[in-house]
Amino acid sequence: MSFHIISLGCAKNLVDSERANGQMRALGFQPAPSPEEANILIVNTCGFIEEAKKES
C-alpha cells in the first residue's frame, strides 16, 4: 500500500510529517509521488497559528 503526506501550516508540521513518513515506511508502506496515486492520504494541519488555521 502507498501513502502521501500533505503538510499545511507551520514549520513544525514539516518535522511531524517527516516523522510520520519514517513511521509509515517502517510499517512497510511506500510513499506515492502524488495524492491521486496514494492508497492513504495523510493531511497534517496546524491549529495554533491563525494563518495556518485558514490554510487548513
Characterize the largest beta sheet: strand count, sense, and whether it forms a barrel: 3 strands, parallel
- Strand portion: 15-25%
**Average pLDDT number:** 89
Globally, the shape reads flat
SSE-based structural type: alpha/beta
Number of separate helices: 2
User: How many separate domains?
Assistant: 1
The order of strands across the largest sheet is 2-1-3
Radius of gyration, CA atoms, in whole angstroms: 12 Å
Oligomer: single chain
SSE string, helices as H and strands as E: EHEEH
Alpha-carbon distance between the two ends: 26 Å
Overall helicity: 25-40%
Number of strands: 3
Question: Could you characterize the architecture of this molecule?
Answer:
This protein has 56 residues and is α/β, with parallel strands linked by helices. The longest helix has 16 residues, at 11-26. It has one domain (2-55). Strands 2-1-3 form a three-stranded parallel beta sheet, with helices on one face. The relative contact order is 0.35. The termini are far apart. The protein has helices at residues 11-26, 50-55, and strands at 2-7, 30-31, 40-44. Helix 1 (11-26) links the parallel strand 1 (2-7) and strand 2. It is 39% helix and 23% strand. The mean pLDDT is 89.
